[in-house]
């Protein structure tokens, strides 16, 4: 079970780097952090990545 959890977290982080809103969505669904991430990604790709990785890491 632990291996599966680690694999899923890795997939979420990769999604957060490639497509930040998807990484945030996979972790928290359509909520406050998802919409914040959409706005940050539209303002700049790097802020969106930072926020998405933070959301994935924070909500383990």
From TrEMBL:
Q: A Pfam family matched by this chain, by name?
A: Pmp3
- Write the record's keywords in alphabetical order, separated by commas: Membrane, Transmembrane, Transmembrane helix
Give the chief site where it resides: membrane
Its annotated compartments are: Membrane
Membrane-crossing ranges are: 10-28, 34-57
The lineage's top-level taxon is: Bacteria
**Any idea what this protein is called?**
Stress induced hydrophobic peptide
| Protein species of origin | Desulfotalea psychrophila (strain LSv54 / DSM 12343)
């Amino acid at each position: 079970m632990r291996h599966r959890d680690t694999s899923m977290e890795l997939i979420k982080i990769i999604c957060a780097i490639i497509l930040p809103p998807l990484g945030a969505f996979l972790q928290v669904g359509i909520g406050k952090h998802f919409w914040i991430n959409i706005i940050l990604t539209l303002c700049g790709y790097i802020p969106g990545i930072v926020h998405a990785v933070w959301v994935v890491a924070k909500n383990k």
